[in-house]
Amino acid sequence: MSLLQIDQLDVRYGPIQALKGVSLQVEEGEIVTLLGANGAGKTTLMRTISGLLRAHAGDVKFRGRSLAHLGADRIVRLGIAQVPEGRRVFPTLTVLENLELGGYTRPPAQVRRELARVLAMFPRLDERKAQLAGTLSGGEQQMLAIGRALLAQPTLLLLDEPSLGLAPIIVRDIFRALHQIREQGMTILLVEQNARMALKLADRGYVLETGRIRLQGSAAELLQSADVQATYLGQQRPASVSGS
Prior knowledge:
37% helix; alpha/beta; globular; six-stranded mixed beta sheet; single chain
């Protein structure tokens, strides 16, 4: 049984169908990346998994249990946490208060242990525990958003564009942290604009186009795919040779 199983998922925004028969699975302990252009439906899929949107048809199952009629708070308690695109920290709360909010479903002793681990992973947050989150840099806010999700101690972490708008050196720090999180045994579903870095980190990937899965395979296979190279890695397809 897959940790996460998505079967023939349709999601609509009024008359607009954002997802069209999407099926995918995520196995426990792996990183799966979801690639696609803006508007392909990646964020819609993440929001549907986490219970912020309702599917028109199809199903999302976590450990074999349907999430179709569960609220977002219940889904967090089951073991799924999302780091949304744009970070969305609470700007008027301190770094420490933001982190502690992430652990609201957990007993205090567990929160203290996880907090110590997160602050060790992100030393900048430890240095800025008393600082208002709204005064942090974009990279620091992204670290905070990831740390806040980890305080929920999820089995499955959903990450939506964690490198968006960040300087390359900060992106490297974020991906180094993701590698560390993976080594701790956490399963990750990753939406990421930097396809090369995402595929180097991931075990498998899917390519979503206009609401449908167009390609899927191991990360190594997708890195070698001419379509992925041309569309997402900035490499041109080889020109065809015609004889006279």
